[in-house]
Fold this sequence. Notes:
single chain; globular
Amino acid sequence: MSALLSHRLLPYCFILAAGIIWGSTFSLALIATADGTHAVTLTAWQVILTSFLFILICLWVRKPVFVLRHLHIYCILAGLGIILPDLLYYSAAPHLSAGILSITVSTVPMFTYALMWLLRFEGLVWRRALGIVLGMVSILLLVVPDHGFASEDANIWVLVVVICALCYAIENVYLGEGIEEEINILELLSGSNMVAAIVISTAMWGLGYDVPAAWFFTSSAGALFGIAISSTVAYLMFFYTIQKFGSVFASQVAYLVTISGVIWGIVIFSEQHTVWVWISIVVLIAGLALVSPRTKRGNTRDSKPGRSGGQDPSFS
Length: 316
């Protein structure tokens, strides 16, 4: 087993698998929203399942599940990285394709570096600044040309998903600069998801968005549970890669998520994209290459996925 874990191809297998799994969650999101289930309901049940999974993982590896003195951190992460972006994401998903979703969410690294620079946590590096510009160009290529979207207000929903990416970027900056590095990342995931589950499930039942028992046997529920399980598994693989092979190497999964998200949409929904979308993908990948992090080996914060319980793998 030790020989297998030390094989030189192992890190590539990990980021490839994580990228493919994470990329599939964009298509799963379209399935989950296809029957018109409210975004509050989808967010609530996804977070409930995700928090349960992370609690089990923490107990398995003997890490704290919840530390009361870190409650304020959990609340910030729950709001910025889970509740708000998930609600916006599930609201936008019915109006966009899986490919467009994967491209838009993958702008998180650009926003992260831009915020780090604006807050003076990092100096201006022209190569990375150019990456930010290319990220913005990739979004404009989705919004300005006519792509023949089924939804007449699809361009507005693209911008909504951009807000999701901005939320993840703010969360990334907070994780990197606002909390002590000694806090275990699994504890943060468990605690923040628990807080999010309590808040959003209370809102779901209070607003009357709960669903009958029969809903849990629908394709929408199945896709939702698939999102929670897939993103949890992919995150653990990603986190292991950071620990063993470094955050700079692990951050390359961002390319794979974008590409696999587009491919999953083509395979599952036979999505067809205009030339502008393909140009947007190329521009985005170029931007990601320029904004790639310059972090020390083993740093587990700088490349942390911003979405602990959902589709989006976001990297700083």
